[in-house]
Amino acid sequence: MKRLGFMLLLLFLILPVSVNAGTIGGKDNPGGVPGQWYAGDTPGYVDPTKPVLVFIHGINSSSKTWWENNNMYQTAFNNGYETAFIDVHPDKDMWDNGALINNRIRDIYHSFGQKKLVIIAHSKGGIDAQNALVQYGAHPYVSNLITLSTPHHGSQLADLAYSSWAGWLAGILGSKNDAVYSLQTGYMKNYRPQIDSHINWSKNPVYTLAGTSWGSFGSSLYWGGLYLRAYGSNDGAVTVANSRLPYATEVSVGKWNHTTVREAGTFPYFRPYLTTSTKQFASSSYQENLTALETMEQEPAAVAALHRGGEFENAVIETFQVEENVAKLDLDWLSDKKTKDLQLVSPSGDVYHHFDHSMDDGIFQGGHHHSFQIATPEAGQWKMKVKNNKAAYLMTAGFHSDLNEEIVFDESTLEVKNKGNKVKDFQVNIKVNKDGKKKKHSLLKVTSKGKVPFTYKEEGIYTITLDVTGKTITGEVFERTIVKSIYVDKNGKKH
């Protein structure tokens, strides 16, 4: 009996302990508890050749995103797949969530009789999942990784959250957390080589999908799309370019937004890649992948928006310039409070009151968007007048204009360049924040090009906010804002 008791104790110690909290939709399923996982219902016939599909959610979300107001789970079930869902920390970085996913993957693998798993991850969940496979060694339990609009190279919206203009609001909304911090493009430029040159980088084939729709005007995704359009096609939260990996297979780029890309409409596209068989990577070496990535990143972004922000007690007036020949003006007032008393005043005195309201559920989760759009806006100085109790805000003016292509910021040399076709000259007010805290302000006057003074050696993420004010060839005043994130490593090297 003693020998039997010892053997039972030994089995208990060596076998993985599952923290499965129950099946989805059950009374024992609280949802949103980091570290828990849930099993979907078992199909009537379980095909032994089909893998178990493991779904992982993104930032500011939970496992319920796959079955509440979403038919993705039901579609997988109807197609005969066993399913599991992992809750990760909505506000933690890929290192914390990677460790968590690693443990749960092992639990799920043993719970389903050691069947291979396929991970389907939305948004940041794809970064977390790949970290688990590569850094923490969960790759033997998983065949393929499918990512749905995952910002593999970060999100410019995360950069914006740490800029000088958005800092007040992001801090109040709680957007300055580990998850958003790690999604800054500067951070990801340092992170990617750590994963993509790891000994495990090629153990699991990666398949990517991305979207190009922003949703309807007035929605939070439309605002995100408006901001990100300067960096290329996007789904309102992530650009198509940032969703790609040089060694991954791009399954499809479709007319999905950041919400619909995780719904069942994408299932037919990635279903052929649910096979448990592996594939050969298109590139034979990491160096080839890195070269391809560097070539892709050399394309400069258009300068299409102006930002202003901060905090006020009872009322605030923001002014901004609209140059001639702007086809359309998009204005968004993002605040921690819903605001009714907003007025947009044109240079000739016309007053606009009607703003569309929506809630942000992304990087600035909990923020209130108040959006307005006007075609062929009058050139000159516009005023935004807002009254409310104490509030924090970020005002974004988006310009649909040919002038957007005239000013270029070269990330590799940190130079602001003027193409000279439509712009005479301009000056740049430069604000540098490190990890969200102000470091330095300076002024740069530019005629053709000018190098941004940046001499920091201390490790961390530096967010450069460049406020551009200048004159067109015809003498009209224009304004724009550029936000860039730079990571300085422990050796003083800029990324």
CA radius of gyration? 24 Å
Total strands: the figure is 24
CATH superfamily of the largest domain: Alpha/Beta hydrolase fold, catalytic domain
Sheet having the most strands: 8 strands, mixed
Measured by DSSP, the beta-strand proportion falls in 25-35%
What shape does the CA trace take?
globular
Mean pLDDT: 88
The SS-based structural class is alpha+beta
Quickly count the domains.
2
Please tell me the CATH architecture of the largest domain by its name.
3-Layer(aba) Sandwich
Poorly predicted residue ranges? 1-22
Number of helices: 11
Question: What does the model show?
Answer:
The protein is α+β, with helices and mostly antiparallel strands and 495 residues long. It has two domains: 17-150 and 205-296, Rossmann fold, CATH 3.40.50.1820; 305-488, Sandwich (Jelly Rolls), CATH 2.60.120. 21% of the residues lie in helices and 32% in strands. The protein has helices at 2-14, 72-78, 94-111, 124-134, 156-161, 167-173, 178-182, 185-196, 220-228, 267-270, 286-296, and strands spanning 20-23, 37-39, 52-56, 83-86, 117-122, 142-148, 206-211, 249-254, 305-312, 315-322, 328-335, 341-345, 351-352, 356-359, 368-375, 380-387, 391-400, 407-410, 415-418, 423-434, 437-446, 449-451, 460-472, 477-488. Helix 3 packs across helix 4. The longest helix has 18 residues, at 94-111. The radius of gyration is 24 Å and the shape is globular. The termini are far apart. Residues 1-22 have low confidence and may be disordered.
